[in-house]
Amino acid sequence: MGSLVGRHVMITSGPTRGYIDAVRYISNKSTGNLGVAIANEFMSRGAYVTFVYGAGSGMPNTHVLEKDGISRLTLIEIETLDDLVAVIQKRLKDTQFDAIVHAMAVLDYTPEKHSYKKIPSNKDKLVITFVRTPKVIRLIRQGWPHAFVISFKLEVGLPKDELVERAYTSLIENGADLVVANNQDEIVGDKHRAYLINLHKKVESRCETKQEIAKVLGDAIAGQLKLIR
Questions:
Q1: DSSP letter string over 21-82?
Q2: Beta partners for residue 51, in sequence order
Q3: 201 contact partners, CB below 8 Å, separation of at least 6
């Protein structure tokens, strides 16, 4: 097991929200459980973890760590995409990270505008315009050009070859170093099939559970950082 002692890692995890009015929003199905598994694995290897998580996300289990575990964990809660961007570009902009795992499920589209009051419920139809959101993984790469960055690509029902192709394209476009490719229909509870794809379009690992993904990512980061120590 590769050591991450003294290494600083940011992990983003869980869902994001886009508000429609003061009480209604759109979100996604992310539980944050994969991000939690990754954070737990990395802290067990001695890493300092900054865990940026969406509202309602699971949380790292500090009870399984030794006494110094809590001191190595920084928790930052966000709710909307604007919150996340502010954390990346303002709050953490001067923080140095050796590696970043962007596992958060960021909305691809969000309401163009929202009401600060509650929209009346007596309408027969409610038409909402959605706009494309910025790619947060690109903002991460811009902010930390020298960090080892791992991105994620989630699709639904694709055969392996097409999934790998789309994941690799996203890796290149977003400037990541590794990408984790997975199908929504192959994620049930802790069962989580995923493929780790590198810059050479090679599938380095195939995983079947969240814990296995976390371990493989820990090994990949530890191995890479050892090379550039």
A1: SSS-EE-----SHHHHHHHHHHHHTT-EEEEEEETT-----GGGS-TTTGGGEEEEEE-BHH
A2: 11, 75
A3: 164, 168
- 101 pLDDT exceeds 70? yes
* Beta bridge partners of residue 151, listed in sequence order: 179
Torsion, CA 85, CA 100, CA 102, CA 141, rounded to 10: 60
CB 110 within 8 Å of CB 133: yes
CA 73 to chain centroid: 17
Convert the pLDDT of each residue in 169-216 to its tens digit. Answer: 999 999 999 999 999 999 998 899 999 999 999 999 999 999 999 999
Q: Which domains, ranges and CATH numbers included, belong to the chain?
A: 8-227 (3.40.50.10300)
